[in-house]
Fold:
Amino acid sequence: MEDSVSERRATGRPERPLRLELSAYGQLLHRLREEGRRFVDVRQRADGVVLHHDVELSLSRALTMARLEATHRIRGTYCIPVRSSLHDASTVAFARTVRSISRLGHEVGLQFDPAAHWEASPSEAALLSEIDRERRALSRLSKDPVEVVSFRRPTERLSRLELPDAINACRDPEEPSYRVVTDRELRDTEPFPDGVPERFRLVVHPGLWRPVAQSESVVVETYRQEAASAVESYFDAFDIPTPRR
Structure:
């Protein structure tokens, strides 16, 4: 466990940003517990700390993080995209991983990306219809109802969108004291230098957290190369002969 903020200030030691390492994440969870913070799900967001995971880059990293949280007896919400260039929702491995996260006691939600469906802004009816379709698809895979939806790169419109049969994870309480904190912020500054808030939503991107911390540019480039390699392998299977000159 890292020294407290007050101890570092008293000794003149510099405050340090959070390294995006799994061990540091475990320390962060321990600190929040030690500070007496209550972990709640999205439905109770006005009453404590919500762990909101946007699973954009790596489903396997999300499962690793879900296991770590389970050892701390903490329940998170994992918002997973059905349509993604990095995830293939039609595979057995995808379904198995989603179910494993759910069986650890976490909630599986949908991360919806309008840009995967439309170039221009869709009508609200079209938006709600497609969200409902993807929720039902993810529910079939997880074997549980999907009742939470987050958005990739949420605009103000998406953050305020009311969902008839689901909870918009990006629609935070409109109170000055309520905060939204991202793991990217914690990487750049000392976590909570003014004290841990009583209520906030912590947005975590599991794919950025590694056994040993790396820069975000290196991590993203690694995923980019893996995706490109998978595409090349797919087309290599066609074994198309090189044209003669």
Summary: The two ends are 65 Å apart (CA to CA). The domain at 17-224 is CATH 3.20.20 (TIM Barrel). The longest helix spans residues 216-236. Residues 1-16 have pLDDT under 50 and may be disordered.
